């Protein structure tokens, strides 16, 4: 209802003026008027308004508006309001009507084209939006925003090559560093190539990803996985070890394949030393629990219990407590076991449905890792959650 009132507030005076002026234009010059004539359509619109039919009133008032230099801004505002209201078809009609007018200035036409492109985006007509934004990137005050919209379109269409071109052009125009984003696009292309069995092509895209952003964790992870699939665990291990220097927040993502490489290469002592280094340096609960598994396999439950307990004294963790309870359940008397089961129920409830990852930009959280945040659509912002209930 608020939007209808806003529209009517905009339309009432402008529609009245447009209707009155149109009447004066078409009235013979020698016709004398002794009273101030109210346009019939205006009265019709008021009648709809009084009968609580605001939509019909708005439609009548819009039809009364002549498009000229004095009403262009009103048309643009109306179209924008309709789009925000979800009435995209109405917004498209208004903006198409504007563009068809030859009297628009260059800046007014550019604004109308941009608004129509926004309408098409909202309607999911990406091909039409693309054509309009492409027109606007050349010598237009909207060129930067148009480029961002084109990037968004190509991301939705998964046309990563075009997304790279637009990102580079945006960087040239604005000076904004787009290299980390471009690196993600190359990673997307690499994943497609690997999925299609084109390992060589995938390797090429990963090299370009690391040239664009040498700190691209995703490129190192993909490189490591591909080398592992090819049986080249030494090269895979080298790629995984690179991640500590690129962004240590992502170390929990690499610990499992890292251990697999060390095991295949027969270098498990090095694996344990490296994991101990990571725990001391970064305190990751995921890494600690992986090392506890290794301790358990080699030295038994008691050693693993002691290892986890010592770590929890320094860095409390719900996940660590949950694992510690599990290890103790089979080594205590029934009376103690019953009490531990109560604690186990508590830790289970604390962990159930708890998100594991969180976007550092918008706060989106979930249990799955996303290189592009589903909430704000930023790249490289979703990371493992830290703290007692996280890492």
Task: Write a concise synopsis of the structure shown.
The chain is mainly alpha-helical. Among the domains are: 2-173, Serine Threonine Protein Phosphatase 5, Tetratricopeptide repeat, CATH 1.25.40; 355-391, no CATH class.
Structure, explained:
By secondary structure, the protein is mostly helical. Among the domains are: 2-173, Alpha Horseshoe (Serine Threonine Protein Phosphatase 5, Tetratricopeptide repeat); 355-391, no CATH class. The protein is 71% helix and 2% strand. The protein has 20 helices and 3 strands. The protein has helices spanning 2-26, 40-50, 54-64, 72-85, 88-99, 106-123, 126-136, 143-156, 160-174, 179-195, 199-212, 217-229, 233-241, 243-246, 251-264, 268-282, 285-299, 301-314, 318-329, 334-351, and strands at 357-359, 365-366, 382-384. It has a 3-stranded antiparallel beta sheet with strand order 2-1-3, with no helix packed on it. Helix 4 (72-85) runs antiparallel to helix 5 and helix 7 (126-136) packs antiparallel against helix 8. The radius of gyration is 32 Å and the shape is elongated. The protein starts with a helix and ends in a 7-residue tail after the last strand. The model is unreliable at 14-26 and 31-36 (pLDDT under 50).
């Amino acid at each position: 209802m608020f939007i209808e009132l806003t529209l009517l507030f905009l339309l009432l005076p402008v529609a009245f003026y447009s209707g009155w002026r149109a009447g004066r234009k078409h009235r013979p010059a020698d016709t004398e008027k002794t009273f101030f004539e109210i346009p019939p359509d205006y009265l019709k619109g008021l009648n709809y308004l009084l009968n609580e039919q605001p939509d019909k009133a708005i439609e009548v008032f819009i039809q009364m508006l002549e498009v000229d230099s004095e009403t262009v801004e009103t048309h643009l505002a109306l179209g924008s309001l309709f789009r925000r209201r979800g009435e995209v078809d109405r917004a498209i009609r208004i903006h198409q009507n504007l563009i068809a007018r030859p009297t628009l200035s260059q800046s007014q036409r550019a604004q109308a084209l941009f608004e129509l492109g926004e309408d098409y985006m909202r309607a999911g007509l990406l091909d039409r939006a693309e054509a309009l934004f492409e027109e606007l990137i050349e010598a237009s005050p909207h060129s930067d925003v148009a480029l961002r919209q084109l990037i968004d379109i190509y991301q939705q269409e998964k046309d990563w090559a075009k997304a790279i071109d637009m990102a580079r052009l945006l960087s040239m125009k604005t000076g904004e560093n787009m290299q980390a984003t471009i690196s993600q696009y190359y990673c997307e292309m690499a994943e497609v190539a690997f999925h299609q069995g084109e390992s060589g092509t995938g390797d090429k895209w990963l090299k370009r990803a690391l040239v664009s952003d040498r700190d691209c964790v995703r490129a190192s992870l993909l490189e490591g996985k591909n080398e592992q699939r090819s049986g080249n665990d030494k090269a895979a291990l080298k790629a995984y070890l690179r991640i500590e220097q690129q962004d240590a927040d992502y170390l929990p993502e690499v610990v499992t394949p890292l251990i697999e490489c060390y095991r295949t290469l027969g270098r498990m002592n090095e694996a344990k030393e490296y994991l101990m280094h990571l725990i001391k340096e970064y305190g990751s609960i995921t890494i600690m629990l992986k090392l506890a598994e290794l301790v358990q396999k080699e030295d038994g439950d008691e050693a693993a219990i002691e290892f986890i307990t010592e770590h929890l004294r320094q860095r409390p963790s719900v996940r660590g407590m949950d694992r510690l309870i599990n290890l103790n359940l089979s080594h205590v008397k029934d009376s103690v076991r019953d009490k531990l089961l109560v604690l186990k129920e508590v830790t289970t409830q604390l962990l159930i449905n708890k998100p594991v990852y969180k976007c550092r930009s918008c706060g989106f959280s979930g249990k799955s890792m996303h290189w592009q945040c589903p909430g704000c659509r930023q790249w490289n912002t979703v990371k493992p959650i830290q703290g007692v209930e996280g890492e």
